[in-house]
Design brief:
Elements (H helix, E strand, L loop, with lengths): L1 H23 L7 H18 L5 E10 L2 E12 L14 E2 L4 E8 L7 H21 L7 E7 L11 H8 L4 E6 L3 H6 L12 H9 L3
Parallel strand pairs: 1-3, 4-5, 5-6
Antiparallel strand pairs: 1-2, 2-4
C-alpha cells in the first residue's frame, strides 16, 4: 500500500498546485467541473489496476440504453462485452447487460445545508435504483468515491461523511481523505487519509468483483 499512497500523494501535489494557480488567477468558480474530471481521470488508472482479469473500467461521460437522461461517471464491464456486435459502446452508450458496476466521483463530496444535502442523497439513491432495475440486478455494485470529506470541528456542524454513509443506502461509499487537502498542503500539515471506508477498503471491494 505504501507505493499506492505515494502515487496518490503525487496526484495530490499536482491537484493542489493547480488549485493554487487558479486561486491566484481568481478563476476558481469556473474550474470546479475541471477538478472533478481531474480526480476522475486519476481514479480511472487506479481502479483498473485492481480489477480482476477481463474486467474493464470505462470512464464517462457515458450512458446506459433506456436511461439516456442520466450521465454516468464510470462503469465496469466484462471485456467480452466489448466484442458485442451492436457496437453501442463505441458511442459511449452501453446496453444494461454489459454493466457490472457503476461509479460516481466527487472531488469535494456532497455539500450545502441539510435540506440540499438530503435532496442530493435522494437523487443519487434514485439513480442507483433505476440503474439496478434497468440492469435487472438489485445487487449491482454502485461505488460513490470522493477525494476528501472534512470532519466537522463543532458538535452541531453537519457531519457530511456520516450523513453520506447512512443516507446513500444504494451505494458503497468511500472517502480518500479526512481533511481539506488544499488547506493542509497550504499550511504544511500532514494529509489525513481515512482508514474506515477509505482507499484500502475500496481496493478490497474492487479485487472482490466477480
Amino acid at each position: 500500500m505504501e507505493k499506492i499512497w505515494k502515487k496518490v500523494e503525487k496526484f495530490i501535489d499536482s491537484y493542489c498546485a493547480l488549485r493554487f494557480k487558479f486561486e491566484e488567477e481568481n478563476r476558481m468558480k469556473e474550474t470546479y467541473k475541471f477538478f472533478g474530471s481531474y480526480f476522475s481521470s486519476f481514479m480511472e488508472e487506479l481502479i483498473q489496476s485492481f480489477l480482476p482479469t477481463r474486467r474493464r473500467f470505462i470512464m464517462g461521460p457515458l450512458w446506459i440504453e433506456g436511461m439516456e437522461d442520466i450521465e454516468i461517471d464510470g462503469i465496469i464491464i466484462k471485456e467480452e462485452s466489448l466484442d458485442s456486435k451492436d457496437g453501442l459502446h463505441r458511442t459511449r452508450w452501453f446496453k444494461p447487460y454489459m454493466i457490472s458496476a457503476i461509479f460516481e466521483f466527487k472531488a469535494h463530496g456532497l455539500y450545502g445545508g441539510r435540506k440540499d444535502l438530503n435532496k442530493q442523497i435522494r437523487k443519487l439513491n434514485t439513480i442507483a435504483k433505476r440503474i439496478k432495475k434497468l440492469c435487472d440486478n438489485n445487487n449491482l455494485p454502485c461505488f460513490y468515491i470522493t477525494l476528501q470529506e472534512r470532519t466537522p470541528k463543532k458538535a452541531n456542524s453537519i457531519n457530511y461523511k456520516k450523513i453520506t454513509l447512512t443516507g446513500l443506502t444504494e451505494w458503497h461509499s468511500f472517502f480518500l481523505y479526512n481533511s481539506d487537502i488544499v488547506e493542509d498542503r497550504r499550511k504544511g500539515r500532514p494529509l489525513r487519509p481515512y482508514k474506515e471506508n477509505g482507499l484500502e477498503a475500496l481496493i478490497i471491494a474492487l479485487k472482490e468483483m466477480d
